[in-house]
Amino acid sequence: MLAASTTTLPLFLALSACAGPNPLAGPPPLSADVRALLRAVAAEQNLISLYNRTMAAYSALVPDLTPLLAEHRAHLAQLRARIIEPPGKSVPGKVTSKPAIPGTPAAALAQLRTAEQAASIAQLRRLAAASPSLAQLYASIAASEATHVTMLDVRSSR
Amino acid sequence: MPTMPATAGELQALQAALAAEHAAVYGYGVAGALLSGADQARALTDWQAHQEARDTLQAMIIKLGATPVAASAAYELPFPVRDAGSARRLAAALEDGVTQGYLGLVAVTNQTLRTFGALAMLPPAKRAVAWRGSTVAFPGMPSAR
User: Fold this and answer.
1) What are the helix (H) ranges across chain A?
2) What is the ipTM, given to two decimal places?
3) What pLDDT is recorded for position A32?
4) How far lies A120's CA from each of B28, B40, B108, B119, in Å?
5) Largest CA-CA distance found in chain B, in angstroms, rounded
6) Is B139 in Cβ contact with A6 (below 8 Å)?
7) What is the C-alpha separation between B18 and A45, in angstroms, rounded?
8) Which among B42, B103, B113 is the top mutation candidate for probing chain A, defined by the most A β-carbons within 10 Å of its own β-carbon?
């Protein structure tokens, strides 16, 4: 069976000018797989923000949502570990999407469910341009997010 | 069902996924005998799902001109299975193994097979959660959980 590793082959993130044939030409453009990785990082940051704000709004949901949030933090850590940041530069940590938290816990859970489902589909769309190792990470995260949908359905049905 | 010329690595990954499905079919036979009621009904449904997945993989491998790996006569269980609790843990472990088997397909460069593997991971990952009652951060990646 092919190895499933989350630690091999980190991708270089060209955030600064680097030594090359023409140092005055500016930083090289980001490759497709690095751009996809940055989008995956941003998506995890958005999900983490959504979980944090949902839990802040509805404390009764905290016990059920805490394990799912912890897994998103693990996803983010693994995705960020694939990026080598040049000294003095870092991967943007900004949340790019901040939807309002709905007015009821049920609606808030439904919003999380929709976000998880969309995130899972987005991970699967990243497979084509990814290295084998990174594709496995995307697929595993997609599966994790699909299981989160299941858990949110269970919570909603109570 | 994907059709494509396959490399040795792709065939190897398909065979590994098939081997995991064979193990699951066997293991559910053990687990199901120790379960009752709704759990036994769920085990039966899951057992049938693995039989269908096994048949799909076998057909894919035959279509590629290779011989599908055969099921073993018996499998060593990962831990003693003597009651309903251990049977449920076995079911979760079987699903983890199948998820891991399909993750191997995601590492191939053939995009059709890669997508097939990624999509095939979803049902066993969800079934593992149903049996375990909790999620894991990285389904199919035991070293990263």
Assistant:
1) 32-57, 62-81, 105-125, 132-156
2) 0.93
3) 81
4) 28, 30, 20, 11
5) 45
6) no
7) 36
8) B103
DSSP state of A30: P
Q: CATH fold of B8-133, please?
A: Ferritin (1.20.1260)
CA distance A70 to A55: 13
The distance of B111 to chain A (nearest Cα, Å) reads: 6
The residue assigned the tokens 């599966």 is: A143
The pLDDT tens digits of the residues spanning A97-125 come to 899 999 999 999 999 999 999 999 999 99
- Specify the residue for token string 């693990």: A74
Per-chain mean pLDDT for chain B: 94
Instruction: Please indicate if any CB of chain A lies within 8 Å of the CB of B139.
Output: yes
Cα–Cα distances in Å, from A102 out to A16, A19, A108? 40, 49, 5
Return the CATH fold of A29-84+100-156.
Answer: Ferritin (1.20.1260)
Domain boundaries, chain B: 8-133
Residues (pLDDT < 70) of chain B are 1-5, 144-145
> Which positions in chain B touch A124 (Cβ < 8 Å)?
115, 118-119
